[in-house]
């Protein structure tokens, strides 16, 4: 990939003066306005903000689901702000794992086959596909549910399958958009324990949430309002404690 910036070797994400503008003239909406943000490899961040604050647009930019109108986005040293749709699709498949509020599992496939699916697009050999899928499902505690379909799993178990699917290609970043929004309190705790463990193992995690108690379990809260970052809160003593 072109436009590699060697000065960003220790930085996974760097946004420089990012704007996202929809429409024009009287219908112009500025969703992001001059956002600057740096995230190092191994960080565990949350993005918060009210509806319309820009947090969802920010997630789409970070996940290469959308391009900024103006500004530079360096991902692992590469400027990805103006790449083609095909190039962005490759990055999403190989470098970014996604977890959403709705699990987006294919109902006709088993947990194992749902997790295998992104590896097919990544060109992973069939032999390695199953090995890596079993490993990912074991990591989220579903080694005994490999052949269950989504309708045979609880909501929490389905979200665990979604997490396994997100990490199976060993992405640079795990992006989680309201991952606990459809879960009860106990299941939320279980899912957040998985995120904490993945981060402890070195995975960079960025989580969008409206739940303060969830955001408090991350190491940095990035607060958005009117398309801008208005506050960042770095913390060091908030690791979730696994239950006995």
From TrEMBL:
Gene3D superfamilies xrefs: P-loop containing nucleotide triphosphate hydrolases
Q: Please give one Gene Ontology molecular function term for this protein.
A: ATP binding
Do you know which InterPro entries this protein is assigned to? AAA+_ATPase, ABC_transporter-like_ATP-bd, ABC_transporter-like_CS, ABC_transpr_LolD-like, MacB-like_ATP-bd, P-loop_NTPase
Q: Give the highest taxon in the source lineage.
A: Bacteria
* SUPFAM superfamilies per record: P-loop containing nucleoside triphosphate hydrolases (SSF52540)
Protein keywords: ATP-binding, Nucleotide-binding, Transport
Q: Which CDD domains match?
A: ABC_MJ0796_LolCDE_FtsE
The species this protein was found in: Cyanobacterium stanieri LEGE 03274
Protein name (database record): ABC transporter ATP-binding protein
- ABC transporter domain sequence ranges: 13-244
Signal peptide range in chain numbering = none
